[in-house]
Structure formats: C-alpha cells, structure tokens
Fold this sequence. Notes:
The chain has helices spanning 16-36, 46-49, 56-72, 90-99, 104-108, 111-119, 126-140, 154-171, 211-220, 240-248, 251-262, 268-295, 297-326, and strands spanning 2-8, 38-44, 81-84, 146-149, 179-182. It is globular. The two termini are 30 Å apart. The chain is built from 13 helices and five strands. The strands form two sheets. Strands 1-2-3 form a three-stranded parallel β-sheet, with helices on both faces. A two-stranded parallel ribbon has the order 4-5. Helix 4 crosses helix 7, helix 9 runs antiparallel to helix 12 (268-295) and helix 10 (240-248) packs across helix 12 (268-295). The model has no long low-confidence stretch (mean pLDDT 95). By secondary structure, it is mainly α. Helices cover 57% and strands 8% of the residues. Bound molecules: tryptophan. Tryptophan is lined by residues 5-7, 9, 45, 48, 135, 138-139, 147, 149, 153.
Amino acid sequence: MQTVFSGIQPSGELHLGNYLGAVRNWVALQDLQEQDRTQCVFCIVDYHAITQGLEPGELSRRTVEMATDLLACGIDPARSILFVQSHVPEHTELAWVLSAVTPMGDLGRMTQFKDKSDKQPENINVGLFSYPVLQAADIILYRAQVVPVGQDQLQHLELAREIVRRFHARWGEIFPEPQARLTSTPKILGLDGNAKMSKSLGNTITLGEPDEVIRRKLATAATDPARVRRKDPGNPELCNVNTLHTFFSDVDRVQWVREGCTTAGIGCLECKGALADNLIAHLAPIRARKAELEARPALVEEALREGARRARELARATMLEVRARVGLWS
Ligand code: TRP
C-alpha cells in the first residue's frame, strides 16, 4: 500500500495556476488509487499559513474557500482524506520532535525562506524559518512515499529526506523516505506574462470567476511581446495564452493557434476569445459543483471533520511509535 500526501496553502479561491499545477494532478492521482493500491491524503496547511501575516477572519475564510474549491474540482472525500492541518495536532507535535534533528544551517539555505523574508522584512519569524520542518512532519506523519509538488518545493522535499535520515540515525528506521512527484505542468504565468500566477501578485483568473470577467481578463493578458501589431507573426512558445490553450483546447484548436499565430493569420484577440470559450466550458461543471457546495456549507464542513477524523487515526498511530522511539516516558 502506497500513500500519496500533498499540502496546499489556504490561499482562498483556487486560480488557474493552482488548478493546473497541483489540484488537477491530485484528482488524477486519486482516480488512479484503486488500481494503484494508493491512499491519497490532502491537507490544507493553515499552520503554515500563519507564518504570513493574515488577519484571523481572513485565514478561516480562505480555508473554507480552499476546501470548497478542492471538493468542486473533484477531490472526493469518500476516496481521499481531505482535512485541515490544525485539526490534527500531531502535525505540530511531530514537527517539534523533528526540529531536534534538523540542522539550522540547512534551514537557512532554503530559497523560499529567503524569498519570503525579502517579501515580509518586518515579519521574519521563527515559523517562517522552520516551515520546512512542519512540512516534513506533514508528510511522514502518514508515512507517505509520494509527494506531488511543483518545482519550487523540491528543496523542501530534499530536506524532508535529510530529516528522515537523521531521525533514523538517532532513533531507528520507521519512515519511508518521501519522494517528490513533479507535476509535469509548465509554469503557469499570470496575466502579466512575467511572473508565476499568484494571488499576491493579483495576476490570476480564479475558478469561480464569472464568464464576463474571464473574457475581460483574458483580453488584457500578455502575449508574445514581439507581436506588437496585428500583422506581426508571433511565437506561440513565448505566449502564455498559447500555454493555456494547450490545457483547455482540443488538438485542432491548438493547431489553429499555432498556424494562425506564426503566420499572423489570426490576431491575439481572436485567439483569446477562443481560449475564453473553452476555458469557460471546462470550468462550467466545477462552478456548478461549487455553487452547490456554497449553498450547503454543511457538506464542506462534514467532509473536513470526517477527513480530520481519519487523518488523526493514522497520525496518532505514528506518534505513538515516535514517542516510544524517542524515549518519551508514557
Ligand atoms: N509548502 C507547500 C507549498 O507552499 C505546501 C505544503 C505544506 C506541502 N506541507 C506540505 C506540500 C507537504 C507537500 C507536502 O506549496
């Protein structure tokens, strides 16, 4: 039996970057799990989120929104374990134990720590520094072998393996070494065409966005910068709108874009209009489920409670063993 674990920050509504980069793959892994003898465990990491300065009301609102969107996208609480990190206190408990075998120097080398410190110089807290220790705890609490993540998390995963090795060297082998499963999605850029799509940069399209907003936002999206006038041919490889077409449009349409763009046969607006149609069609069932869940918030709450109950059962068993190995008197 293999366990897949992944976590996502409660950043509120999902946007296309989260969807293509993470959640779509989670749903695919979940759908494989019967054949693969796999258990999928997905966690909304609210304890990680508090290292950034969110208002309390905002944190809980975003947590519920994230859960709603994950369910709307097809995470099925009957098959996967979906829960909120802080509902399972063993995460922070194990993180403390792991912090005793984590070298400070390794944490100081994490590029995300440096990036986040640059972004919030007024709030460089210890939690931001030890963030990867909690992340390692998230994973090994469920003895997960497979961790679907994007490129930006590889360094954290490498450190998680190092922490596991140090735990083993000191207290004996009990965990598998977790492996990252890289999602094959290319980086999804924001509408500005410069930076990764991200809520804090305000360059996103969220899954719940009304049709007109999707059309309006796409119309402003950056394309190949060399294509200044309608008659200039463009290079689809340098165009984020083309990247999105490859996910939401069929092969004929993708071919139409490629030909039309490179020969200036179609204009960018026409290309974006076709993308908007296909994107809206793709999102329609997700949005319908989202509306259902928003009308019945108790469904979301129940799913999270049940997920936490199941997660906690697994987490408790691991912590019992950890306590015994470490020699904590019981
Ligand atoms: N750090 C991850 C991110 O920012 C989220 C995360 C927390 C995570 N715990 C995890 C991802 C465990 C994978 C496994 O995307």
